[in-house]
Amino acid sequence: MKIILFILAYLALSFTASAHGISDADKAGILAGGNLEYIKLGASHMLTGYDHLLFLFGVMFFLTRFRDVVKFITAFTLGHCITLIFATLFQIKANFYLIDAVIALTVCYKAFDNLDGFKKLVGVESPNLLIAVFVFGLIHGFGLSTRLQELPLGKDGLLMRILSFNVGVELGQILALSIMLLLLSQWRKFPSFTHFAKITNILLMFAGVILFLMQIHGYEHSSSAHSFPLNTDEHYEIHQALDTERDVATEEAVKQPAEESSPTLSQ
Predict the structure, then answer these.
(1) Helix, strand, coil proportions of the chain in percent (round to 5)?
(2) Where in the chain are the domains?
């Protein structure tokens, strides 16, 4: 049983770190590259940010008019641009696990709203969706900022690096939304959309809960690794070894471009 618990905890933490964090390979690329690398990083971060994508999927699920799609996505984009740019520029930080946990709850909120939960279970009308999407955009942008601030951004050219990352995020979002729009518009043509709309949003809420638990695990692990109901020595040492391996890989990736660009003695 202990082994099973450890495997589940390890998989959860690994998925959390790799699915939405900035990988060591990305960090190495940033250190060796310029603003174009920040654009690439922003795009890849959005396209692998499952919490952002799930929330957008929930927002898009019942929108049939292009005008409504533009309205809500504009509100979300405006929100996350504000906090991404200003939180990074003024170095406003928070624990990224906790921020991502709140983002996971926004996924649950949208699924609950799609299921008409406010009227059926709470007995009230749903809150203004446009305002909610804007506010959640602010939260998502803060999450993006906490991840961006993992990098050694420096002061020279800071604003351009932030804007480049933001441009990448928007490009990634456009690509993701285009795919979602295409799939949803095609799915709505079939009776299965009506039949499976409820179960789809239940699964969306379940995914939000899983992401929330994963982020809480990450927070607990980062703040008090020895408090887990596992063999704490093994738990801690395994993660320390993994971190060391990642650091070594990053150093080698950073050194390699420099060595290749340096002239040899024979030359």
Answers:
(1) 80, 0, 20
(2) 2-218
Q: Please return the burial class of 156, using the count of CB atoms within 10 Å of its CB with bins 0-12, 13-18 and 19+.
A: exposed
Query: Within a 13 Å sphere around the CA of 185, how many CA atoms are in the beta-carbon half?
Result: 10
**Distance between terminal CA atoms of the chain?**
61
* Token code pair at residue 42: 């922003």
Look at residue 250 and tell me whether its pLDDT is greater than 80: no
Query: For 122-140, what is each residue's pLDDT tens digit?
Result: 999 999 999 999 999 999 9
Nearest to 44 by CA among 74, 12, 22, 28: 22
pTM of the full structure: 0.76
C-alpha dihedral (160, 161, 165, 171), degrees to nearest 10: 40
pLDDT digits (tens, 9 = 90+) for 213-232: 999 998 988 777 555 555 54
